[in-house]
């Protein structure tokens, strides 16, 4: 897929300095540019690369004035970084503009869908599924019975959406994610064995949610596991049954949230955090990576450690952790001196 400088400048409302017919077919860092790539310059510390880059086209700020000759065609814009991001989004839309239904795929006769959809080969759409407009379901994806997908949803290859799941508008479910699998519910019996507790709830994902590759969101035992609007989940996260995650909270990879925990809105949770079940975490909470949360957390707390302490308390304590060997040596010297004098 090729684009000319003229086409790009039109999208970005920029001004061309150089050859308007210069063509590019891919994007690159400025230091890795080559004859068919497009790059950008916004950080002054990378300015020296613009004089050596082999990129065909470079997006720059409108106040940029070269000090010597540049081989690349320039497109001048108000903000090079924002314009490049806009172009990435535009490129992604063009790249993912597939429509139609590929064969072989299975769509139940009771399923319905809106306009401008794409369903890839070997995808499975179950009974009574409702699919909105502009939805893309990639090959080998599964959408279980009675599920509902809103408009502009993307379900990438290999993702599995179990029955009764409700997904809002503008959501992305990445490859290998599993939404709606059974929660981890077992009850011990008199034989010392474990009987499965039926998981008859569902998962509700509101608008503008991203679910990363390999992430699992379990269905509720009763009621719903709920992911509120604007939540961003990284790869390989475990969200257990009946968890609720508040609006615009972001969670990094390998975090696990145990059952029935409620997480507030606008929280930031680092990677490999472990959160126990049946607790409440307030709004705007910040949890550092590899922390263990075993208690309720108030609004605006910042936590670190396992079990987690207040962020400032942890850092103060850490000074003593580091000095513990020296402190022990000093303590032994004092004991020895006291014993000698005694």
Q: Kindly give the count of domains.
A: 2
Q: What quaternary form is this?
A: single chain
Major β-sheet, in short?
12 strands, mixed
What gross morphology would you assign?
A: flat
SS strand fraction: 25-35%
The assigned structural class equals alpha/beta
Share of residues in helices: 10-25%
Number of helices: 4
CATH class of the largest domain: Mainly Beta
Which value, in Å, is the CA radius of gyration? 27 Å
CATH topological fold name of the largest domain: UDP N-Acetylglucosamine Acyltransferase, domain 1
| Total number of strands | 40
Name given to the CATH homologous superfamily of the largest domain: Hexapeptide repeat proteins
Mean pLDDT figure? 94
- The low-pLDDT segments are none
Distance between the termini: 87 Å
Family: Belongs to the transferase hexapeptide repeat family. LpxD subfamily.
Organism: Mesonia mobilis
Subunit structure: Homotrimer.
Domain UDP-3-O-[3-hydroxymyristoyl] glucosamine N-acyltransferase non-repeat region: 22-89
Question: What's the layout of helices and strands?
Answer:
Blueprint: E1 3-4, H1 5-12, E2 15-17, E3 23-24, E4 26-27, E5 37-41, E6 57-61, E7 73-77, H2 80-95, E8 100-101, E9 106-107, E10 112-113, E11 118-119, E12 124-125, E13 130-131, E14 136-137, E15 142-143, E16 148-149, E17 154-155, E18 160-161, E19 166-167, E20 172-173, E21 178-181, E22 186-188, E23 194-196, E24 202-205, E25 210-211, E26 216-218, E27 224-227, E28 232-233, E29 238-239, E30 244-245, E31 250-251, E32 256-257, E33 262-263, E34 268-269, E35 274-275, E36 280-281, E37 286-287, E38 292-293, E39 302-305, E40 308-310, H3 311-322, H4 324-341
Parallel strand pairs: 4-5, 5-6, 6-7, 8-11, 9-12, 10-13, 11-14, 12-15, 13-16, 14-17, 15-18, 16-19, 17-20, 18-21, 19-24, 20-25, 21-26, 24-27, 25-28, 26-29, 27-30, 28-31, 29-32, 30-33, 31-34, 32-35, 33-36, 34-37, 35-38, 37-39
Antiparallel strand pairs: 1-3, 2-7, 22-23, 39-40
